[in-house]
Specification:
The protein is built from 16 helices and 11 strands. It has helices spanning 6-15, 20-38, 48-62, 104-111, 154-161, 178-184, 218-228, 259-262, 268-283, 299-314, 332-343, 346-359, 365-385, 410-415, 421-426, 458-468, and strands spanning 41-44, 73-77, 115-120, 167-172, 187-190, 210-215, 254-258, 287-291, 391-395, 430-440, 443-452. The protein is globular. The protein binds glutamine (GLN).
Length: 473
Amino acid sequence: MTKQTAHSLRADYLAGTQKPTEVVAKSLETIGEQNDALNVFLDVYESAAQQAAAAEELLAKDGESAPPLAGIPVALKHNIMVEGERVTAASKILENYTATYDATIVNKLKVAGAVLLGGTNMDEFAMGGSTENSAFSPSKNPIDPTRVPGGSSGGSAAAVAMGSVPVAIGTDTGGSIRQPASYCGVVGFKPTYGAVSRYGLIAMGSSLDQAGPLTNTVADAELVHSVMAGRDPMDMTTIDVDTYPAVETKETYRIGVPRDFLAEGVDPDVLEAFEAHLKDLSAAGHEVVDISLPLFAKGLAAYYIVMPAEVSSNLARYDGLRYGTQTPGETLLDVYEQSRAHGFGDEVKRRVLLGTYVLSAGYYDAYYGKAEAVRRLMRQELANVFTDVDVLATPTAPTPAFTFGAQADPLAMYRQDIFTVPVNLTGVPAISTPMATVDRDGSTLPVGVQYIAPHAGESRLFDLGKRIYDAQL
Ligand code: GLN
């Protein structure tokens, strides 16, 4: 079965063989049939059919000049604000919270004609790698419902994998777009830090967060990213990637493999699939070389200090007064304590506590200061490596999708992020595309490869991804 993509739908719309209202009706039907079992959508927007009708009108007037995503159904992670729609970050504390404005990326998607279909499940406040931390029950992996879809953007990955939408938007602070993409057999793209505005996203780690697409093809990821990217006066960390010194595309790429980094804890089947993929890259004319990135192995340790530090400060605003649900108490302090005690789940509490600790007087230098120093050195190390190679390749995650409860130990869960967090710490772009399947207990499970490019080098990832992945679809 060829999968529906934003590109194929556009072609159909222009040829008149399909219409947005029909496509959106089909999307809603798929959700209706499967959502009870998979728990992928937390909300379906009532305006979906109306949006589809509006897009249909645009296309009917002059299809060629209709905006690039006219009539394309798009699902949004539940930490992205759409004015008038509920946005919960899958937390009890925001269970009944309605967004009061559009995120910049939502505004851009609307201008591009996208039909915003609904909000997808996730780990609470994007903390986790399985959706098991959702306050509203986990999502299930459409490929094998006994397994997690990954996370934290697990609902967005599953929404694409279950065939309900060709495009879903996720956010990635330490791998939350790429890892679920790997588990669900879809494409997931994390842009250069600052390429996409964070205005209107519920913040997790502000120096790490980026929003990006989950799609069936690299070409679609490129298209959707081009719609969402750009400088935004509402987010002073945004940059215009196009104004950066060009990271040019090439006929063939010199691809670096951080071997020392692959030594430990990677599932043997994933490693075998990765080695086979490297052979394919060589066969396609690229040069695959071993490189050394000793500091990347410290990425996890640095991430699990920097990220909770930022989490503890970003989540201070959920005090039971300003946003969301309030649990009553005798005194003001009581209200704070009770609202947070009842409103937050265990993982969120763990990270707020950790973050508060590493920022506290007396420990700041030993933990936060040191982690930021490691981060700076990682950036230097990476910049050096990129004077030699064009792109890096790693498995996206060390295992295929696991069964519910299999990574109940938080440290085991954190180890899933080993290949993805260095990318966020250094701010560079990365993409995950499916590379193979592995057999596990009678299921055939997808696993992804991650390509990493230099700062502002997104075009290289799209070029390589289209040539290697899209070309064989
Ligand atoms: N799994 C990672 C974590 O739990 C990544 C989360 C994310 O990217 N939002 O922090």
